[in-house]
Amino acid sequence: MAYAHSAEDRVEHLDAADPRRRGVTARVLLLTALLIPADTYFIADLHRRGIEDPTIIALFWNVLFLFVALRILNGIVARLSPRRALAQQEMLALWILVSVATCPTGLDTLKTSWGTMQGYAYFQSPQNDWERLFGDYVPESMTVGDMGALERLWVGDHSIYEERNWRPWLGPVWRWVLLFTFMWGGSAGLAVLFRKRWVERERMSFPIVQVPFEISRPNMPSLGMAAFWIAFSLATLVNLLNGLHVFYGGVPQIPVKIGQEPTLDLRRYLTGHPWNAMGRVHACFYPFGIGLGLLIPQDLSLSMWVFFLFWRAQAVFVAWLGWTQVRGFPFMKEQSFGGYLAILGFSLWAGRRYFRDICRRIIGRGDPAMDADEPLRYQTAFLIFLAGFIAVTMLGVSIKLSVAVAVAFFLQYYVMTMIVGRIRAEMGLPTHEIERLGPTVMQGNILGPRILGKQNLTSLSVFFGFTRGLRNIPYPLMLEGLYLGGRTGLDGRRLLIAAIGVIPIATAFAYFWNLRLGYEHGLGADWNRWMPWSSQEAWRQLEGWLNRDEGFGWGPTVATVLGFGVYFGLQLVRSVWVWWPLHPAGFAISTTYYMQHLWMPMAVAWAAKSLMGRYAGRGGVRHLQAIAFGLIIGDVITGSIWAIYSAITRVNTYAFWP
Question: How many domains does the chain have?
Answer without folding.
Answer: 1
